[in-house]
Amino acid sequence: MDRVEESEGPQEIVNLYCNPSSTIILTILGLRPKADMTRFGSYKLLSIRTLLRLFLSQAMGYRKLPCSVLFLCIFISCFIPHQSLDDEENLTAKLFIDASERSSHPIPQTLFGIFFEEINHAGAGGLWAELVSNRGFEAGGSNIPSNIDPWSIIGDESSIIVSTDRSSCFERNKVALRMEVLCNSEGASTCPSGGVGIYNPGFWGMNIEQGKSYKVVFYVRSTEAIDISVSFTSSNGLQTLASTNIIASASDVSNWTKMEVLLEAKETDHNSRLQLTTSKKGVLWFDQVSAMPLDTYKGHGFRNDLFQMLADIKPQFIRFPGGCFVEGEWLRNAFRWKASVGPWEERPGHFGDVWMYWTDDGLGYFEFLQLSEDLGALPIWVFNNGISHNDQVDTSSVLPFVQEALDGLEFARGDSSSKWGSVRAAMGHPEPFDLRYVAIGNEDCWKKNYRGNYLKFYDAIKRAYPDIKIISNCDGSSRPLDHPADLYDFHVYTSANNLFSMSNQFDQTSRQGPKAFVSEYAVTGKDAGTGSLLAALAEAGFLIGLEKNSDIVQMASYAPLFVNSNDRRWNPDAIVFNSFQAYGTPSYWVQRFFTESSGATFLNATLQKASASLVASAITWKNSDGQTYIRIKAVNFGSNSVNLQVSVGGLDPNSVKLSGSTKTILTSANLMDENSFNEPDKVAPIQTLLEQADKEMSVLLLPHSFTSFDLLKESVSLRITADDWFLKSSI
Ligand code: AHR
């Protein structure tokens, strides 16, 4: 296979709107600069070389350009300095697609989904919209003194003493914060202006937005009357964004009392903090302090922008809650579902010792099931099988873990009168969740007790829930499994060249036995950086291979899904965010090319290729209006343009001609280009509507590009008006 260039030389980048020659070229191409090249409100910067590539693809395949215009364009391009296409010899390849039903196979409805792991603060400080970090002062566990980080103290030792004790009213998280205020509003030791107290900066700053409301809840106890100011402020505490006072008599707060206030922000600050302050002498205890925006997806607690990015992938399943997060470095620190359900105040939280951070477990087992339902995705629950990275339970003593898994299934699926089903019902979901898949552990196949433990879980689950599909950690792609399973995990993290060449990975896999679940895949290391085009192209090639083998590959998900840019534990990731912004890496955008594949029909296609750096596939799929498309996807992983001659055979006589079709391209000036908060769409798909397409056609595939052509079957009439010329990308 051709080696992929690691990077291209520096190229001249021009701003389309400042550079007259680019604008002229675009106009000649029929692209209206602002409308056609503007995505999501940001300007796309293209190199002149890329413009010429675009021009060639338009001229060769889809646009009927008058000859004079063509020559004018070539003339102009000759005067553009320092640009040459000499190094870009066009290769030719042929793709024969058999669109007849007899040569097709159905792609499983479950093929493409997502894998959510609590890694990189994906949930706590990410998708889960809770603004307070360490809300019960419990980080570090139940010992005291506890770790109150990231809470900090306002005031010095002469005015306030802060400690922790085990006096909370919550049995599973006994630690509470004790605050002794030594100063007063007047007298000899007057409190500093603004009072003394504590503040929490959340997860690298709270995003407080003007006009939005936030519910602040906390538990308090005191021996005297209280007068507490609850406020959102700027990171230095000097500007107040929203504030209210809570005043209560001593008798009202002599026992633990829940306080709840709604704060509406009068200003925006993406880096604010929550303060609890007072200027009243006395001793107070605080516990379980929460601040939630009211504006979350359906009020279910998911941060809207991040939820939407997931919904846009249209995931058919969601595997959760990890990965290594499920295993733990040590069993004592593994995620345990029972500690993550019930009222949020009563959850103990835990320290995830693989990714090394504390989570309050606001995003618990129930919330994951709710997330699946909200996304219209099937939940795939990965549970601990009595094995962590460093310790394991012997098979002879694994039954408590088995019972924990069975109880978890009852929680998800049991009748609301059952023991655990009633806990779910009390949390607001009397109907069972649609849990059909479970994975017994993660990446544990090679460990001593895996098979023994696995069989204990397998037998017990199949006995109680015969319909549940069970996923083994042992790779069955090259040899048969030595134990029963419905699916097996397949994980791959590798270089771009390796992953691209793995588009044939499942070609030889036996069609007997369990199906493959490619539950984690990604290009990693130098080729990937923090999310490069190169990585994304290799992944696109790999996914085309999975589609082709989707008679045996039933599911696939990229990993990891999210990264909070303040806590990069793993690179790269699909979605990058901070307190208020988010963008997709090129790998995210590749996944969007495959949203229509799940449940579609794979067409037999033969690729006669000029280079090993090319893979292509064809499917038919229907949109929600019932229109049928043939989608051709092609990854050109090499550095030459490829002239792809497409021939579609086997269509019925009424649909011989194809029209009203679109082309979507993912490419960029440099292979290692990445998106960023400043340029979130630097490497993102551009979709244009094609005016002409045919059963026999020739399309140009740009070097280092992923292109998808959607050919609408002519039997469905489509009227194109001038205004419709540019279709805003659906991906
Ligand atoms: O996706 C990151 C990690 O990679 C997962 O936790 C683990 O399953 C794999 O090793």
UniProtKB/TrEMBL annotation:
Origin: domain of life: Eukaryota
Entries under SUPFAM superfamilies matching the protein: (Trans)glycosidases, Galactose-binding domain-like
Catalytic activity annotation: Hydrolysis of terminal non-reducing alpha-L-arabinofuranoside residues in alpha-L-arabinosides
InterPro entries from the UniProt entry: Alpha-L-AF_C (IPR010720), ASD1_cat (IPR055235), Galactose-bd-like_sf (IPR008979), GH (IPR017853), Glyco_hydro_b (IPR013780), Glycosyl_Hydrolase_51 (IPR051563)
Annotated Pfam families: Alpha-L-AF_C, ASD1_dom
Domain Alpha-L-arabinofuranosidase C-terminal: 519-705
Its EC number(s): 3.2.1.55
Keywords from the UniProt entry: Glycoprotein, Hydrolase, Signal
PANTHER family in the record: ALPHA-L-ARABINOFURANOSIDASE 1
Protein name, UniProt field: non-reducing end alpha-L-arabinofuranosidase
Phylogenetic lineage: Eukaryota, Viridiplantae, Streptophyta, Embryophyta, Tracheophyta
